[in-house]
Amino acid sequence: MKNDAAQSGRTQWVTLSTRILYRSRWLELRCDETVLPQGSRGRYDHVVVPGSATVLAVDEDAMVAVTRQWIYPHGQAQWRLPTGRIEAADASPEVAARRELREETGLSAARLRLLGVINGADSLTNHREHVFVAGELTQGKPELEPGEADLEVRWFPFDRVLAMVRAGQMPHAGSAFAVLSARVNGILDIYR
After folding, report:
1. Residue 138 half-sphere exposure, CB side, CA atoms within 13 Å?
2. CB 32 within 8 A of CB 15
3. In angstroms, what is the C-alpha Rg of the chain?
4. At what angle do helices 158-166 and 173-184 cross, to 10 degrees?
5. Largest pairwise CA distance in the chain
6. Fewest Cβ atoms closer than 10 Å to its Cβ: which of 43, 78, 84, 170?
């Protein structure tokens, strides 16, 4: 016997209700009562967070701005590209990318192009990372937040950054996606 979902041709989940189990300025932990595509009921626990923006900033010599700082959830310092969450005051992911680049490195970009949007930990969270490449850079002064006091900025040749990704030395998903996408799609050439 076919269930109602199969008979109706429905292929999406339906949310019946949502309970917020925990909320902070950084995230919400939600418990949703759902109807699955085949028609059965279920419960889905997940984390809701704002999106983030990551920037591959490349100068005219194919040097890349790379940051290193302590990443608390991973318990170690990590190399990554300038990145941060999209704030409520940001009008768009592009505005957030420009802000994060300026705050962490002091850089402003005359050219900014979206490389893509990737999902992080799909089964656990709604997190989406907007990844950009930036060129025609102007140096200014960083505006670090208190939690970024240990953040350092280094400039590496693109090929070295690519080698870092290949060797697992840059485990941040948005950073790895940016570097690999730029390489595969030949995007770097237009930002030199």
Report:
1. 6
2. yes
3. 20
4. 120
5. 67
6. 43
Using the Cα atoms of residue 180, residue 190, residue 142 and residue 65 in order, give the sign of their dihedral: positive
For domain 52-191, give the fold.
Answer: Nucleoside Triphosphate Pyrophosphohydrolase (3.90.79)
Which residues have CB under 8 Å from 19's CB, separation 6+?
A: 30, 31, 32
pTM for the full model?
0.87
| % of the chain surpassing 70 pLDDT | 92
Domain coordinates in residue numbering, the chain: 4-48, 52-191
CA 19/CA 31 separation, integer angstroms: 5
Question: Any bridge partners for residue 44, and if so which?
Answer: 32
The first and second tokens of residue 10, run together, are 């429905």
**Spans of the chain, pLDDT less than 50:** 1-6
Which of these, 131, 147, 128, lies nearest to 48 by C-alpha position? 128
39: left (phi over 0), alpha (psi -120 to 50) or beta: left
